[in-house]
Every structure is written in structure tokens, then in C-alpha cells.
Amino acid sequence: MNILWLQSGSCGGCSMSLLNAEVPSLYELFKLADLNLLWHPSLSEASHQEFLDLLQAVLTDEIPLDILCLEGSVICGPKGSGAFHQLAGTQQSMLHWLKLLTAKAQYVVAVGSCAAFGGITAAGENIAEATGLQYDGALLGSVLDANWRSKAGFPVINIAGCPTHPAWVTNTLVQISMNALRLEDLDEFHRPRSYTNHLVHHGCPRNEFYEYKASAGKPADLGCMMEHCGCLGTQARADCNTHLWNGSGSCLRGGYPCINCTAPAFEQIKHAFGVTPKIAGIPIGLPSDMPKAWFVALASLSKAATPERVRTNAVVEQISIPPSSKNRGRK
After folding, report:
1. What's the pLDDT at 304?
2. How far is Cα 127 from Cα 55, in angstroms, rounded to an integer?
3. Domain 2-196 has CATH 3.90.1150.10
4. Strand positions, DSSP E, 89-136
5. Positive or negative: CA dihedral 319, 321, 326, 331
């Protein structure tokens, strides 16, 4: 299957992450899945003119376009013209080219939260008029309208994340290449359920601290970061702590709270990412599927039952009190 990969309003971070794909590596995966990368702005050797010729060949159906991947938000400014981002050498905006190319693709894949929902480039006043390809934040209907479907009958497949885990991208591409992706495999925001059927909270190494509501006071502390440090892992839809980055890492394992970067408009918050806003001392960012009254009641009981080991270790940077073991041989 032929893949054309374009970048728009992007830092390129999703491509950088993709290069860290392991077992198999990115190029091994392309070979195994019979995926042909027609063009990628950082990985392809073709000249500028060869690239433009490729686009024309796609538009005239000389070269079939199976998968169109977009990385980065669509820049629609000023005043919806898209002129803020022109495709070099064409005198036309990237917005113009995306409208032409999406009409030719069997599948359209938005790689990263910027391409999916607008992301970081849409934050604040958004003077660039940045938006996702089919979503503007959480609102369905953007450059492509709400009812748009690709030639294969799919909406834009939103592999959201900032950046995306390489396996989220490769797994989705393999599913497409094997004709194994179904509409029901996408969630309510058209994200692949292969990773959004999970919470970042699952597999978090701080879960013992969470259970006892033993909270970190600052990011470097070992305790749970939900109560004071802004962690949204109990709400965020992703498998970051069970499908580790580079085989060993995640934001939480690196000492930073989850900011729910797979969600629409995650960037549009009114407080620092590392701060938990509260009302009457109760964190706003409670688990998405737990009633507030239940959480408050359970939190009170948990804190009352917190072992001294957990309470002490929660507010230090290295384990101070190790787990104890019962001496079963003593009489």
C-alpha cells in the first residue's frame, strides 16, 4: 500500500518518535507489511520537483494513494485562505492540497493531536487559525466536514498524542494494510481503540501511592501526582504505562504528570500543567468514571489507613523506607 506523509503546522515530534519504533524497526515494518512510503519530508531522497511530479501523478490517478498521513495542524489563516502555509513551489496553500489529496486517499490518518484536533498550534488566540483535519478541538467538522468519509468509507483516523507513541502509528498502519481495521475499532473521537481502550493510570508505577492517596508535593517526589501536581492519568485514554516508550519509559516514570495529550483541546487549560486545581480542597481532575462523593469518602478512608512506609516515601525523591517482610520462622 502506498503511503504519502505530509507535514503542516507541526514541530515534527511525531516523526521523531516514529523513528524509535522497535521490534520491528520502522523500515522493517514497512517491508513486512508491504507498505511503500511514497514521500516523507524528512525521510525521502526525492528532489523537490520529483515530489511535485508525485503529487500530480496521485491527482491524475497514475499512482494510487492508499494512505494519506498528515502530521501537524492545518493552518487555515488568514481568514480561511490557508496562505500562512504554502506548499513550496506550488503557489498554493497546504490547505488547498489537502482538500485535493484527501479526495484521492483510501484512508486518511491524522498523526498526532495537532493533525487530529488542532493541538499545541491551536492554543491561545490561535491567530494562525490552526485546526485538526476533521475536528476543531472536540467539535466534529473542520477542514473536512462531519460526514466526510474516505474512499474506504472511514472518517479521518485520529492517532492522537503529543507526540504519538511509535507503536500507535505502526499498529494502525499494519491494521489498515491487513484490511483488519473496522469502524468499531475507532472510539468516539475516531482514535484507534487499540490504545484508547486503556487509561494512562493502568500500570502506573505510583499506583500504590494512589490507592492510599499518599501524594507527592513536587514532581520529583515518588508519591501520586493527581492531588497536587496536575496528573490526569486517571482520565487520559492511552496505554503509556503498559506499552512503554523506548521499552522502559513514560511521562510518569520520568517524574512528570500526565497532561492527557491524547484528548481534544488538552492544550486549552487555564492553569499550569503541573498544578491540580481544586474546589474546597477537592481536586477537579478526579477519575472520569467515579462519582465525586465516592472518591472523597474512599480518599478519607485510604489516607487514614496509609502505612508509614507509603506516607514517608510519597514525599521523597528516593525510597526512604523499604517494604518489610514477616519473619515466618520466628517463634
Report:
1. 84
2. 29
3. no
4. 92-93, 107-111, 130-131, 135-136
5. positive
Q: Is residue 208 very low, low, confident or very high in pLDDT (cuts 50, 70, 90)? A: very high
CA distance 26 to 24: 7
For the chain, give the percent of residues with pLDDT over 70.
Answer: 96
pLDDT of 241-283, one tens digit each? 999 998 899 999 999 999 999 999 999 988 899 999 888 777 7
Longest dimension (CA), the chain: 87
Residue 279: strand, helix, or coil: strand
Q: Give the helix ranges, DSSP H, for 13-133.
A: 13-18, 26-32, 48-59, 94-102, 113-117
According to CATH, the topology of domain 199-331 is: Cytochrome-c3 Hydrogenase; Chain A, domain 2 (4.10.480)
Residue 156, classified by CB atoms within 10 Å of its CB into exposed (0-12), middle (13-18) or buried (19+), is buried
DSSP-assigned beta bridge partners for residue 5? 69
Rounded to 5°, the CA angle 313-318-320 comes to 50
Residue-range domain boundaries for the chain = 2-196, 199-331
Task: Decide if 283 contacts 267 (C-beta within 8 A).
Answer: no
Taking Cα atoms as reference points, which of 50, 127, 118 lies closest to residue 84?
Answer: 127
pLDDT digits (tens, 9 = 90+) for 92-102: 999 999 999 99
